[in-house]
Amino acid sequence: MSIKFRPEIKDLVPYKPGKPIEDVKREYGLTEVIKLASNENPLGSSPKAKEAIRKCLEELYLYPDGNITDLRDALAKKFNIKSSQVLPSSGSDEMVDIIAKTFINPGDEVILADVTFPRYLTTTKMMGGTPVIVPLKDFTYDLEGIKSKITDKTQLIWLCNPNNPTGTMFTEKTLIEFLDAVPKNIVVVYDEAYIEYVTRDDYPKDSIALLDKYPNILLLRTFSKIYGLAALRVGYTMASEEIITNLNKVRGPFNVNTLAQAAAIAALDDEEFIKKSYDINVEGKEYLYKAFEEMGIQYAPSETNHIFLDSKKDCQEVFTALQKKGMIIRPMYGTFIRVSIGTMAENRRFIELLKELL
Model pTM? Predict the structure, then answer.
């Protein structure tokens, strides 16, 4: 007799992360490689976070605080909410899984965009949900299109603002109008992993104020992007006490390790590092925009630390050709690629190689 696997996972494929630097070095015999594939902070991490980790090294034999008390309290204080309204996780990736396990039943309809963070679709299918896909409009979430797909079978809606991989955003006015129209029994997951990079004034920067008015919304944020703690895997979700209580039933014990908890607390208030990261991102984005326009390359205006662009060639060919030159970017589909905004030296090198290639 053969082993049986759950039918829901039959067509799933493993998540494919950005290619590691060491793999590319080995494959092509390179000594220097620049990675602009995974939207990491080119400045590294907060010095305060590194110091906090050093202080924890004598505690490696102890289990982490399973309640994540100090980090929850720090987040609650910063955002003026109750500790019972926030739940850290091992990156947003884990929380996406937890949310799916908490809310999605077989046959439930789950609405999401066609080009967005891929784990939304994977976890929906994993739980037996029925994905309802709404195409982007001008590389941006079409909230009117999503609204038109709501039925009495709709259980959950995934939103990513600004969106990954396109970097585009929808406005506060659009979001409020959408939330007002969504029945309160439908869960709305609002992923704002890149909120700290947003420059536009019409973005819903005070999303935490939505928690009181909309008890069906969950806010997802992360320490992986502007805080530069991607290796430690720590994110957090804010929602009503009822939702957090139920997510906590599904959460695995000790899911956020001791080093991650300490580093996140220290990084949270390092305003100097955050501002420096924001400024270098704005400078890099403006440089890349100008270069793309001079080259006649179409791109989506970004409110993140990455840009979605049309390379005019097969994205896999571009991906491979750039790798051979020591530059890792992210192939998306067709001729579209995504490039993270790096230091100015890294950005200039990317443009130099892209010009050679095109």
Answer: 0.95
